[in-house]
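note to self: dont lose this again. the chain is below, predicted strucutre after it. 164 aa total, dont forget to put it in the shared folder this time
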Amino acid sequence: MQILVLSDTHGRSEVLSRILLLHPDAELIIHCGDGEAELDEFIGNHPDWAYKIYHVRGNCDYNSRSPRSLTLDLPHGHRLLAVHGNYLEYGNFMENLAKAAKEEGADLALFGHFHKRCDHMLHDIRLFSPGSAAKPRDGLPASYGLIDIFENGILTSHAEVPRT
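---
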């Protein structure tokens, strides 16, 4: 199974569409917040994609009724927790996220909010941020993530947002 992960598109509908349309075979799409309006626009234009798109509320997704966290079962006994990250940022964020994932029985935790790429193992939890697809803050190009779920493990990668 391949999962496309993106976050922090901040109103950039064309960027979100470009990324999603590059990966029509992704079986699951997770948006980790701050992009609900453009995600709704994409689904409106591509309703046949709606069944595989999930998202969580970001701190800039104003008046959102979306959940602030999402837990999904994955093939081969894996489970993911997706959050934006803003409500876990106080104290040690990575520890807080790993603890939240453990509480949900997840071995993969996805997050946004910081606009920085991350792929880190902590307490047997893979913590993964795709970075920002629109406004990166890590000195790297805008990015998104791809996650492949296999029977023997999880393979993660970051990809740069292609320019028009």
